[in-house]
Amino acid sequence: MPAYTKDKTLFCALNRIFGFKPSGIKALIEDGASPESLLPDDEARKGIIGWAEDEISRCIGLGISVVTIADPEYPAALKECPDAPLLLYIRGTWPEGKRALSVVGTRHPDEYGLRMCDRIIDSVHSTGNPPVIISGLAYGIDVQAHKRTLLRQGITVAVMGTGADRIYPKSHEWLAEKIMEHEGCLISDFPLGEAPLPVNFLKRNRIIAGLSECTVVIQSPKKGGSMVTATQAFSYGRDVYAIPGRLDDCKSEGCNYLIAAEMAGCICDTDRFSLYFRDGKDMTASHTGAGGSHRPGDCICYGEDGDRGKILRILSDRGGKSTESLLSETGMAIENLTAALTELEIDGKICKEDGFNWSIKIK
Known about the structure:
Layout: H1 6-18, H2 23-30, H3 43-62, E1 65-68, H4 76-79, E2 87-92, E3 100-105, H5 111-124, E4 132-135, H6 141-151, E5 156-159, H7 173-181, E6 185-188, H8 198-210, E7 214-218, H9 225-235, E8 239-242, H10 253-260, E9 265-267, H11 270-273, E10 299-300, H12 306-318, H13 323-330, H14 334-346, E11 350-351, E12 359-360
Parallel strand pairs: 3-4, 3-7, 4-5, 5-6, 7-8, 8-9, 9-10
Antiparallel strand pairs: 1-2, 2-6, 11-12
Helix pairs in contact: 1-3, 5-6, 8-9
């Protein structure tokens, strides 16, 4: 429950004034400036302080916690980000101390996207240390990630583009209640009553990216909120992964771009990806870079060496290839290539979805 303190009032006022661009004020506070010194000195000061006092009183009445960036309960991972909010409104319980995975994607997924979302959630919940699943309560991949997590008895957190007292879309009110009932929470940095303006959803994406050590993108056009989240996660030095799709599928254009630009690792096996969270450890050394963090552009694929491994790496890095292209790129003899392709197909690791090009088979 929020406490009524002078510092909370000051931070609430600052968030109202500088919430859209908090990085400059955050930097000043970290350099030792007092919150009070950053408020205006004229009559506007009284007005914004009065508003902040009323805002906190309303939060107390609604059971919404007000957590400032100076509070110990402020999420540590988010606090590291240069543009972290000065204040968070939290309904429910923030799962302190648990690892977190952000899952984002299009609002209009097809059956493939929904199936891959379920498999990602199922795979990480089969580990000994399932992470909190962070998403945005929107239609499509967001709501699928929340629902699948609850189905697996997991904890999920929704970051909102509205005030914490206003659920959008309204049809997801039942889901918001279930999230809070199952040890999760709703988070917003917008004042109470804030409307669902389009710009708010782009702004809140930095919080989705900042709360997690890892973000997974499941189906996204090349432009959209999911790409904003992935780009921000990448800028924070966090791990980013994407589910690949067909080259001619606009729903996967963004994911394929992230992989090709080496901003995201390619998930070719959801069980392999789950090693990221298994028993509280990062992935095995063969798929990690300096400091134990996954290198963007690596493929979470199969532990294969020799000719089979060469083929899988080419298909993972460059997409579908014909037998003739693989013959040229691998430098293998035709009989060895044919034998390896046949073995990989029988083992269920590659397939010919279009009857011409070989590609990694998503499990």
